[in-house]
Amino acid sequence: MKNRIVHLLKGHSADYIEARFEKSFVTRLTYRGGRLEGVARTASVGGNIRALVNGGWGFVSFNCFDKLREGAELAVQEARLAGREKVQLDRQEPVVETVTEEARKKAADVPLLQKKQVLDEYNDIILRRADVVSSRIDYHDIVHRTVFANSDGTYIEQEKPSLALRLTAVARKGGEVQQAGVSLGSRGDFSAVEGLHDEAERVAKRAVALLSAPVVKGGEYTVVLDPVLAGVFTHEAFGHLSEADFVYQNEKLAEIMTMGRRFGGKQLNIVDDATLPGLRGSYKYDDEGVPAARNYLIREGVLVGRLHSRETAARMNERPSGNARAINHRYPPIVRMSNTFIEQGEATLEEMFGGIKEGVYLKDWYGGMTSLEMFTFSAGEAYMIRQGKVEELLRPVVLSGNVFATLGNIEAIGNDLEMNQGGGCGKGGQFPLPVSDGSPHIRIARCVVGGK
Questions:
Q1: What superfamily does domain 2-210 belong to in CATH?
Q2: pLDDT tens, position by position, 75-95
Q3: In the list 82, 138, 158, 186, which could disulfide-bond 192, CB 3.0-4.6 Å?
Q4: Contact partners, residue 95, CB within 8 Å, separation at least 6
């Protein structure tokens, strides 16, 4: 196989050419209410070839390996038609390596019946609580085995497993409907989603409690965000603005995201790090064969870096970061986050709440949207804070504002960093890409909070 791929990349009139081959194994289970709605175990094989000629890219994907040479020639022809300028890729030393993964209990080795039995138990727990009228459970585990090679001489075999679970309870009383949920995941380790019976119970209990919870009075509050919501905020509101393809294509964003600009206090450090062991967003090499790295985006409150592919690094004359990723062989790699988080600070949780006369404690996530530097997020769980104490549960609340003003209003960063592995990132039609995000608890002044 290796010799065939290396031969495939030779003899083309392209500035650069690469090939990616992939085998994928996927298991999915979906519950809606008391019914197991879907079970699927699938395997797929495919690949793609990408060529660069005069700044233009050609891309061909396939699941038939009989005409690889013709596919490579077509990618070169497409690139030649698109190319209008001379574009240099950031120079990378060739790598030849095979990367394997270790997990305590590989999900791919767990029998389907055992997976179903675990999820059946969670579903039964959710549905047996009074006033819970429905449930939703979405589970999947995936293993991608890839081979990547390019005309620079790189050849990498890599295995990338991922697992995610979402539990949701829907409660109703009269005409009132509320829901609560939790997302979890791992890098293919099934033990991460075992023993969650108490978590399923808490989800159901919270959905019911929301039926009688009061609505917050809209206005500006000092808020405390838990590690899950703070991590989602970091990923969605700031992380995407750090992806270099967004920056160089958007003049306004380029003016905002100027290196050396201060966005927060000296206690604020934001990092994207694909080298952290055991996380869903981790890998040794990205999908251009660039080594993963720990990349500071904000250091001591100042913008010091952004995320790059080889092309964007060369265009912006900046250091490569190893953040070109593709969800599968049907797509070319684009600039994506890996594990994005706020570094740990020094404040205890007691110190976080101390001194807040009236505020809001926000936990978990429910949904949200961003528009350049503006954001709106719905918290999955919210409580009033009075005189430094966490008080009554609130109906779901919405947090909105300007991300840069919000970063500047961070007053304290906790000493309790946690990483959330339950999410998936979407960009350019590629969803859900395995990522992780996280943060310690953070306290933010003057946040706009609404109850609907």
A1: PmbA/TldD superfamily (3.30.2290.10)
A2: 999 999 998 887 779 989 999
A3: 186
A4: 154, 155, 156, 285, 289, 291
